[in-house]
Amino acid sequence: MNPGDELFSGVWLGITGFFYIAILALALWRLPWGVLARERGIQHLLFGATVALMLMWTLRAGISPGLSIHFVGMTTLTLMFGWDLAICAGTAALLGMTLIGRESWSAFGANGLCFVVIPALVSYAVLRLVEWRLPRNFFVYLFLCAFVGGGVAAAAGGMTMGSLLWLSDVYPWSKIYHEYVRYLPLIMFPEGLLNGIIMTGMMVFHPDWIRTFDARHYIDEQ
After folding, report:
1. Across residues 188-194, what is the average pLDDT?
2. DSSP state of 217
3. I need a labelling partner for 132 at 20 to 30 A (CA). Which of 10, 89, 95, 141 fits?
4. Domain hosting residue 209, numbered range
5. Looking at the domain assignment, is residue 141 inside a domain?
């Protein structure tokens, strides 16, 4: 994250912005507006998750602009709220990061696509694949959807950002690989661990907070 104003050309900013806005519009169209307006508990939970995500994004490490590594956290939001609400919450967190000057306004679409939309959709794809191919089991859901899904989603977002920087001729691939890509496997395990720990706590104490987890199927019927 954090590509500066000078990194991407107008063409790539337009392409990433188009796809980001299109998917965000679809997410907004799918939102259960009536439920959100009626349920104060969901509003508070969504707001708290958005603030926590924003705070987590402030912790990052990197050498060159645009090649910083940080926790993503979108897998937990996707499993909690579904991909549509997760994208909206991630957008709100990214907006907050941009307002405080930690992100660039011109690269809002690129950041949103790489670190909000793609991780959310990858996490949702892992969830649907697990539900389709494997039995509904507490540990299968926890390990594959939270642990593995979190790592894969973070790597997918990071690889997309690295590829955009390379296609835009911002950096040569050798620089991107040595400063960014080869470190992505190192962030996949802690990313998966972080998402897994958070999801474990919620699955045990507050399973009703997780939109994609039905305790009757995953626990009671086992």
Report:
1. 92
2. I
3. 89
4. 10-220
5. yes
Which band of pLDDT confidence, cut at 50, 70 and 90, is reported for residue 7?
low
With respect to residue 4, please indicate whether it lies within any of the assigned structural domains.
Answer: no
- Locate all alpha helices (DSSP H) within the chain, ordered by sequence: 10-30, 33-38, 40-57, 74-81, 83-99, 108-112, 118-133, 138-140, 149-167, 173-179, 184-205, 215
Q: Looking at residue 143, which CATH number applies to its domain?
A: 1.10.1760.20
Check if the beta carbon of residue 2 is closer than 8 Å to that of residue 101: no
Position 5 in a domain: no
Mean pLDDT, the chain, whole residue set: 86
Beta-bridged to residue 10, according to DSSP, are none
Angstrom distance (rounded) from CA 189 to CA 211: 24
- Cα separation of 202 and 44, whole Å? 16
Residue 1 lies in a domain: no
Round the CA-based radius of gyration of the chain to a whole number and report it. 17
Burial of residue 200 (CB within 10 Å: 0-12, 13-18, 19+) is middle
Q: How confident is the model over 146-185, as pLDDT tens digits?
A: 999 999 999 999 999 888 888 888 888 888 888 888 888 8
